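Researcher: Sit down with what I've pasted below and flag anything odd:
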Amino acid sequence: MQSRRKFIKNTGILSAGLLALQSEVFASESSIFNFPMKDFVSKRPPLAQRKFTSKAIEAAIVRIKKQIANPELAWLFENCFPNTLDTTVDFEIIDGKPDTYVITGDIDAMWLRDSTAQIWPYLPFVKEDKKLQELIKGVINRQTKCIILDPYANAFYKDFNQVSEWKNDMTKMQPGIHERKWEIDSLCYPIRLAYEYWKNTGDISMFDADWKKAMELVLQTFKEQQRMDGKGPYTFQRNTAWATDGVPLSGYGYPVKPCGLIVSTFRPSDDSTLFGYLIPSNMFAIEVLGYLVEMFSSAGLKDESIVSNAKELREQVEQGLKEQGIIEHPKFGRIIAFEVNGYGSFHMMDDANVPSLLSLPYLGAIAPDDQLYLNTRKVVLSENNPFFYKGKAGEGIGGPHTGADTIWPMSIILRAITSVDENEIRKCISNLIKTHGDTGFMHESFHKDDAMKFTRKWFAWANTLFGELIVHTSIHYPQILSDRNI
């Protein structure tokens, strides 16, 4: 079947140009003249159908596109970077406060992880756009409500009376919860968002009694899942043939030996862990616990109890990481394990979802040039990682969630963002250009040998993250974007 791009080429420049102008499919008038109209028609919704428009983001799109010499890359950037704002946000004022519900794309539910990650790339622009600032405040407020409803849940509905399709899961399901898979990162991400918003704006207006209550619940939940005093209150079981959707041994998972680390029953992929101490997520927890200490030590937010509890917990997790999370690889030396159980067993792999071992510098959990990270990076980007794939279409990391031989564009994006090697970054961007499956967007995954075989047509996190990569590259490696032949 002809791709849309080839079809437009074959029907001629005049008809394509007229179609583009008449249907107002370009993001802005100035974008029409940045590259040949015959090749790439914007895939963004018409202006009137967009969920939210930010002047700062629109200006950034125009500005950065002018740096991009490759027309396909410029087209991808314009389609992807605003995708979260264009298609997934629902902003309103509730009880006098901004409230923003953020779906993932083709799943009408809000994940604490995804909603933070989708909005994250827009944070550098909040000072330029008060509307955008209010939108992000709304995400913080909505996440606060979700955590208070259930700190063990990972995904929620806008309507807290809505009953989930997963209502028969054997866990403490209640209305308003889409899914109740306990993942450490689900509570880390809202802290990351709140902290970065605070650092960018100094605004503490949304950090009220409810937000403080949510942060106390985060600390309580982390403490419970250290399992120092028993297994804790959380269990999960599901009637399913999909092994990674179930949790063994009455829903508690395989045994762990308490060591200071926090159990994560599920990974960021929403797949169950093999060994409960998921190290990338524990390292993320260490980072955000530091954020809580800083925030609650500051003027206007001071709370000695939260500071003390966060410090103590952080020290315990750091000690557990030092004693259990670092292993000796026979070929690569000291590396970070993916999962451990405290008994000396470890699981060596990496998954495309964030937090992952590959993504740790992106989360601020380790420096990108730290030798421990560089050793680990060599493992996860090689055949020593059972979920690293090379094929005709490209190379990258996948995971059990989408099956064997599937590569997640997210892993290629994070490989580039965390790299300090210009050639590696160039290679990653080139691979992403070649693997969007003629859609103009990123996907959840694609087959290693055929990019036209992909999962999820509408996955806003991957789209916006791709935009973040291009913004990052425009700042740090503009020479890459100036290469038309990338």
